Structure formats: C-alpha cells, structure tokens
Amino acid sequence: MRALCRYWAEEIGPLTDPPAHGGDARDAFHVVCPSPPGYGFSDKPAGRGWDVERIAAAWIESMARLGYERYGAQGHDWGTGITASIGRQDPGHVAGIHLTPPLAPPDPATFGDLTDAERAAIADLERAGGQEDGYSLEQSTRPQTIGYGLVDSPAPLCAWIVEKFRSWTDCDGHPENVLTRDEIIDNLMFYWLPGTGASAARLYWESFERIRRVFTDEVTDTVTVPAGCSVFPKENPRPSRRWAARRFTDVRHWGEPDRGGHFAAMEQPGLFVEEVRAFFRLVR
To answer: CATH number for the domain including 189?
Structure first.
C-alpha cells in the first residue's frame, strides 16, 4: 500500500515508521510528497494551463514512473481538489482517497431538514463569502498584482499568510496557541526563499472558477473510488456526510475530530495521522 500525500514532516515519521512513534507496523506507508507547480520545491510554470486537473495528471504520471501500481492519495486545501481529480482520472490504480475536507456543496434537498451542524456550516459559508474571500478574489482575478508585493517584501507576505493562520486555525485568535513561531516561519520561507508568492497565486486564476462551481452545485463530477473524509471543527467548509455522499459515492470513513481547523495536519498532527490510518486500513 502506498500513499500520495502533501503534508509536513511531522506526519512523515509516524506514517512511514509507525513503531518508532508508538504505532502498528501494519499502518506503514511509503510517502510521496509532491508540491504543486509554482509552490515550494516545484518549478514555476512558464505558461498557462496548470490547473488542478493537469496537476493531478502529472502526479498520476509521477506515481507510475516511480513504479507504484496501486496507491492512495491524500489531500487538503488545493490538494483536496487535486486528490479528487486523481481519483477520477486513475481509478484503476487508486486504492482510495482521503480528504480534509471533501469539497461538496450543501444539498438543497436537505434544506427543509437541516441538522444544527449543517445550519452552522451554511452560516459559516455565508460569513466567509462576505468577510473572508478577499484573498481568493484577488488571486483568482489579478494574481500578478498581489504577486509583486508577495515576492518583493517579506512584510506583505507575512501579513498575507499569517492572517490566514489566525483566521483558519483552531487557535482562539492566537496562532501561537497551536503553531510555534518556527513552524509559522518555516511555512513563510517556503514562499519567500524560492519566490513563489506570485506563481502560487496563479493557481487561483487557473482553477478557482471550477472550485466555485462546486459550491454552487454546478459541478456534478462524482468520484467513485473509496473515500475517507475528515472534517475538523474549525474548518470551512464543513460538509455533512450526506452532502458529501452526493459527490463521493463510496465513503468508507467519516471522521469528525474534536480539535483542529483548516491547517489540521500542522495544528493536530496526531489526530490527522490517526484519521489517515483509519481510512487506509479499510482499503489496503
């Protein structure tokens, strides 16, 4: 069993060598950690067209060239869309996909019978649309404009990213409640040292319209490979299982940990690792 995963080093040890971290050797993975074009260690695209579908196809090809005939994929943030596309494009080799969270819109058919959690999820989506989405509108329409500032000075880069740590982590308004300063600075340096502020922003220009259509229920691209879904309490969006099941037709694991936000793998690495293990035990 192999895992395709894009997360931080705190998870690599427990996933690759469980006994060294108090786990079961049967949960061990090979871990392949690609970064999307324009991010981190990857080169910057020289032309248009690097959307989530093309990135997924490149990662599928990478896994084939590495010799993996069967593998699992795990994704969060942009990785969620990429991972779903991997499941659609390569079902013959993908044992399953794990998503934090699954991208799926509220189901209008449930609006007359919403749970309290579903009402809260819809309210948070509406709040985000009015108060939180300025960054995505800028990057999806004029990525170069903000991009020049992000590669010119560490001050705007720090403000641009750390604001999201404050807003999106389960931290009570103080990122250092869940992340160390070194972890925050390490994250910033993945953008600052290779100068990827602008190239990373362009992925929004390439793909954000498709993601937007998912949340307006205009996309009906179902994913049929086995899926595991983990929805952390301070994440947004937080689809319910019945909403997610409309798009992901074979949900094998549904987890709702009691702590964590959008950056759950950084905030709560132990809970994240347990969610990944719990799903992939079902499809090994």
So the answer is: 3.40.50.1820
b/e map 6-44, b = 16+ CB within 10 Å: bbeeebeebbeebeeeebeeebbbebbebbbbbbbebee
94: phi then psi, degrees, rounded to nearest 5: -85, 115
In this structure, are strands 251-255 and 30-32 parallel, antiparallel, or unpaired? unpaired
Residues 6+ apart with CB under 8 A from 89: 53, 56, 57, 60
Instruction: Provide the β-strand partners of residue 97.
Output: 73, 227
- The SS3 call for residue 252 is strand
* Model confidence at 22: pLDDT above 70: yes
In this prediction, residue 240 carries a pLDDT of 98
Residue 184 CB burial class (10 angstroms; 0-12, 13-18, ≥19): middle
| CB-CB contact of 78 with 100 (8 Å) | no
* Domain around 83: 2-280
Q: 170: which DSSP letter?
A: S
Vertex 221: Cα angle to 218 and 224 (nearest 5): 150
Number of structural domains found in the chain:
1
Tell me the per-residue pLDDT of 212-256, one tens digit each, with 9 for 90 and over.
Answer: 666 665 556 899 999 999 999 999 999 999 999 999 999 999 999
pLDDT in tens, 155-173: 999 999 999 999 999 999 9
pTM of the predicted protein model? 0.93
Alpha-carbon span 227 to 75, nearest angstrom: 11
Q: Token pair of 185, please?
A: 């600075």
3-class DSSP string for 94-142:
EEEEEEECCCCCCCHHHHHHCCHHHHHHHHHHHHHHHHCCHHHHHHHHC
* 3-class DSSP assignment, residue 172: coil
* 190-207 residue pLDDT tens: 999 999 999 999 999 999
Task: Give how far Cα 272 sits from Cα of 23, 101, 161, 182, 263, Å.
Answer: 14, 12, 22, 20, 10
